[in-house]
User: Fold Nucleoside triphosphate pyrophosphatase from Leucobacter manosquensis.
Amino acid sequence: MRLYLASTSPARLSVLRGAGIEPVCFAPDVDEEAEVAAREAELGRALTAPELTEHLGRLKAEDVVRRHGPDGTGEIDGLVLGGDSMFLLDDEILGKPHRPEVALARSKQHRGRTGVLYSGHWLIDCTAGATRAAAGAVDTATVTLASDLADAELEAYVATGEPLELAGGFAIDGLAGAFIERIEGAPSCVIGLSLPALRRLVIELGHEYPGLWRD
Assistant:
């Protein structure tokens, strides 16, 4: 069974490869800001972090299926996974900081405290020439940053550029690994893709998870 990843995230690709899965990657083409605004206007309220991550994961997977699936180029024969991650601290959703000053401010805010990482997933079954079914799931993990981190350490981390394009502004599998004191939940969830959630979705769609492992 082939897994198609609706993402070009190196972190998600690394998680899957480490779990014995070699996905085919497609870059989704989704105007996230516009799509979220449209969905919130439809609901008449703001999306919660779990709703937001699953919704964006769904949009990414559906875009890839639309362009490359049975009704598109026909390249896809397998399962298509879309995902998104958000970090919640003080009831505020923190996406990718993008700018160094934002990353530094957030790391100082997080220091000595615990935040929640939400990882949303959407899996579409595109086997045997048809789009058959889909299912979604959101997993969470709490992340506690060490309380004794010096400003100089945080400044040095931000200066590497690593946290700028990461939800929450840190990477447990990177340079910030020594800064994270405790994680509760699936470690892969913190990196951006929950392997336990993926396994449950694969089973829900009627397939066997070991079938994703590369030969």
